Amino acid sequence: MKKGKKLYEGKAKIIYATSDKNLVIQYFKDDATAFNNQKKSTIEGKGVLNNRISEHILSNLSQIGIKNHLVKRLNMREQVIKLVEIIPIEFIVRNVASGSIIKRLGIEDGTVLKEPLVEYCLKDDALGDPLIAEEHIYAFEWASKKEIEKVKKMILRINDFMIGMFRGVGIKLIDFKLEFGRLKINGNDEVILADEISPDTCRLWDSITDKKLDKDRFRKNLGDLIPAYTEVAKRLGILHEQSNVSAVNVTKLSSVKKKHK
């Protein structure tokens, strides 16, 4: 599929047009950002790993009936995806308290929640992706009540599946971020899962040691981000080809180019 003009560039991905108006190409960058883009680095191989891991998870979710934007992976850095109108809400799913919630509420890091907690954030970098209530979504018409009810049902099913998938490879799913978009089908809008699911968008801890295998290694200056992401991919059974292992340059951490503000 021929890649056309650049339509959009975000912090971690670039979207390109194709000859099909309903399909676009999603390119995974090596850029790492944290704290609303205040901390930045380029980490060689991160995009390759996120592409493979996200493809694996979205493909498995498709098999259990969760419709999403993935069509196919093109190569080590690119996917063909369906063009959707993104709902401007980030849906944060928490199974264990960590990250921003422990600072906001004074809860001990690692507190296991009795039930999954879903939080809503407005997708707006300039405002710092503020936490919002469900009533805000309806008041400002960012999504309808019918859409949110459907999304919440999908979220719980996605969470159940991912908890089991990661538990099976010795990883605890602490929390994760989801995005959804509207897809036109026969003139009607259908809400489907979009964006990516990867160690960039999930908190993943080793089940025994609680070692962090996600972007917190970058946020908290823990180092070894590429080996951590590679460990996730290996445990999921998706890093078989030697070419893919070498492509992420696991041993070349000295190539990390820091661009802190």
Describe the 3D structure.
The structure is a single chain. By secondary structure, this protein is of the alpha+beta class. It has 2 domains: 6-84 and 225-255, 2-Layer Sandwich (Phosphorylase Kinase, domain 1), CATH 3.30.200; 86-206, D-amino Acid Aminotransferase, Chain A, domain 1 (2-Layer Sandwich), CATH 3.30.470. Helix content is 28%, strand content 33%. It is built from 7 helices and 15 strands. Strands 8, 9, 10, 11, 12, 13 and 14 form a 7-stranded antiparallel β-sheet that branches. A hairpin with a 4-residue loop joins β6 and β7 (78-82). The protein is globular, with a radius of gyration of 18 Å. The termini are far apart.
SS-derived structural category? alpha+beta
Number of strands: 15
Q: State the CATH class of the largest domain.
A: Alpha Beta
Distance between the termini: 37 Å
**Radius of gyration over all CA atoms, rounded:** 18 Å
Keywords:
alpha+beta; D-amino Acid Aminotransferase, Chain A, domain 1; 2 domains; five-stranded antiparallel β-sheet; 7 helices; 28% helix
The gist of it:
This protein is an alpha+beta fold. It has 7 helices and 15 strands.
Topology, pairings included?
Layout: E1 6-9, E2 13-17, E3 23-28, E4 31-34, E5 39-42, H1 46-63, E6 70-73, E7 78-82, E8 85-86, E9 89-97, H2 100-105, E10 111-122, E11 131-132, H3 134-139, H4 145-167, E12 171-185, E13 188-194, E14 202-206, H5 216-219, H6 225-235, H7 242-247, E15 257-258
